[in-house]
Amino acid sequence: MFTSQLVKRFSKLSTPFYYYDISVLEKNLDSLSHLLKPFNKVFFSVKSNTNPKILKTINNYNLGIDAVSFNEIKHCINNGFNCDDIVFAGVGKTDREIENGIKNNISYFNVESLQELELINSLSNNLSKVTNVSIRINPNIKCDTNKKIQTGSSDDKFGIDLNDISYIPKLNQLSNINISGIHFHIGSQLIDLSPFISLCKKSNEITSYLKENGLNIKTINVGGGLGIDYEEPEKNLISNFKDFIHLFNTKINLDDNQSIHFELGRSIVGQCGFLVSRILYSKKSYNKNFLILDSGMNNLIRPALYNSNHKISNITSNQNTYLNYDIVGPICESSDTFARNYPLVKSERGDLIVFHSCGAYAESMSSNYNLRDNINSYFSDTI
Questions:
Q1: pTM of the predicted model as reported, rounded to 2 decimal places
Q2: What is the Cα–Cα distance from 344 to 10, expressed in whole angstroms?
Q3: For the chain, how far is it from start to end, CA to CA, in angstroms?
Q4: Domain stops at, among 269, 299, 322
């Protein structure tokens, strides 16, 4: 993947920077697109990556947008997406954000509480609009993932309680909303797909109940959460869309004119992105080998936030000897640590280090902590 010519180009660039392999992104989009049925629609979870070049590529494949703030909506409109292809999710939408979403005629809101539903109805009435909404339901399904990215158990803040679904048919009588669907999201970075089988069962029970009580919904939004391979990314650059999409297409019971909506982010963009950094210092302290890089948790916060692991490569060293390193950044926090006791070829000051699988939740979660500069992004088709 990192040819000698590419490494030579990297060596001339100021580090750190993000690098995107557009061919990997396109291969994932091709794989996903070929698996979709006419009753499927994918909304890209834009919180995973907001880079305009990445969004332009995604827009070429006619995906919609799953946004969680109005600024995300505005950003996507400015980058060529149609308002009626944008879904607005999020547990804490402000009145102003809701008003702006209504005025821009987005596809629908994913509503996370009964109080929010009543607010959307009131604001829609003020604007003389009828607004499409999908009710997010917390199905109380626990997943084998990091607790901080689990979103569908009874402990989590998202969605309405299963026991409150009896209110939904009554609330459809509100004059300025149209309950067009239901919505779920049970967690992120899921490799084991078995929790999604449980989700399909719950979804079928809920849609059947709503139908019996006079509410025929049009869309079943099952969220996203499909994981990627962080350990051996080069062996699995294309996500397992085949099993994921097939599972829902075969296990969700659909009536005529109903469709399944997906919110995929990481699985689309995760493997196309890299963080490239340079070693500032190599030192030994109390029997530990440290590599101190010019990139920090402000450029890639996942290890500090989730204790997550990324594959790390030295792409300039010619050494054959391996040492165990604590690989750390320059931020004045002990949590600014990418890996501990990580086996890497013997590395020296000036070597280039690459973090793999940074297409999702790296650039989009970056910050200027310690007043550090924003870093550049480069692309395989232009570098």
A1: 0.95
A2: 20
A3: 14
A4: 269
Q: Are 370 and 289 in contact (CB under 8 A)?
A: no
Which residue is it, tokens 């993000």?
18
Those residues whose C-beta lies under 8 Å from the C-beta of residue 334, and which sit 6 or more positions away, are: none
Helix (H) or strand (E) holding 261: strand 259-264
Asked whether 295 and 277 are in contact (CB, 8 A), the reply is yes
Q: Assess whether 253 and 152 both reside in one domain.
A: yes
Token pair of 28, please? Answer: 């994932």
Among 218, 244, 269, where does a domain finish? 269
Which of 304, 362, 356 shows the shortest CA–CA distance to 329?
Answer: 304
Instruction: Report the distance separating Cα 352 and Cα 277, nearest Å.
Output: 6
**Of residues 340, 355, 247, 260, the one with CA closest to residue 301:** 355
DSSP string, 230-258: SSSGGG--S--HHHHHHHHHHHS---TT-
Cβ atoms of 189 and 143 closer than 8 Å: no
Q: Which domain range does residue 238 map to?
A: 22-269
- Lowest mean pLDDT of 95-104, 115-124, 166-175, name the range: 166-175
pLDDT in tens, 315-344: 999 999 999 999 999 999 999 999 999 999
pLDDT tens, residue by residue, 177-217: 999 999 999 888 899 999 999 999 999 999 999 999 999 99
